[in-house]
Automatic annotation (TrEMBL):
GO terms for cellular component: cytosol. Gene3D superfamilies: Aldolase class I (3.20.20.70). It comes from Candidatus Roizmanbacteria bacterium RIFOXYD1_FULL_38_12. It is found in: Cytoplasm. Homodimer. This is Triosephosphate isomerase.
Amino acid sequence: MKFILANWKANKTIKEVQNWLDTFLLGYRPHNLVTISICAPYPFLLYIKERILGLKNVYVGAQTLSAFEQGSYTGEVTARSLSEIVKFSLIGHSERRSTFHETNEDLAIKVKLAVKYGIEPVYCVRDEKDPIPHDVKYVAYEPVWAIGTGKNEKLEDVVNMKKKLSLPKNCVFIYGGSVNEQNVGQYLTSDEVGGFLPGKASWDAKQFLSLIQAASLDESK
Ligand code: PGA
């Protein structure tokens, strides 16, 4: 069972989300080979959740959440607010760390709040220098040079990095960085990589379906 998280980043209008879901729901055949999480901008989460209702192994996820629990923090979206909507939340994506200056301390608080409110954190790291909180069950390794560049890191190097990371026991190890339907197959040749975090390859529903299919086909061999 592979875990595939679509990271839509700051893209799409509601109309585009409707179209994406129309295409996705028409083409997706539920099975037990992959678990999917659609990590979308906040305004679309509830709508997506309603549209995928009853679909097996498909969930909605946030891309980050607030380091504040609740209160007078205008503009923030808290784990508490998200708790009845999402199953997962990315935490510590490299774009949050670089553009929004989120520190390891901020991220540790976010993980605690996510867990407190029943959200599964998918903790993102750039390399072995990023410490990993002990209580995460999903860790996504994304080398910065591979994000959005079309250049994915080869399996051997991903596995080498996995060895260097202080991963919590039994956590699911996810790779992200220019994963697409053409290159996903190489990661399926080993049991080391438990899932994928595609950005660009998830923005178009047809391409995302192809990626899911590629990940499922090889998995079932
Ligand atoms: P990418 O994005 O697949 O476009 O490289 C991955 C990510 O940033 O999570």
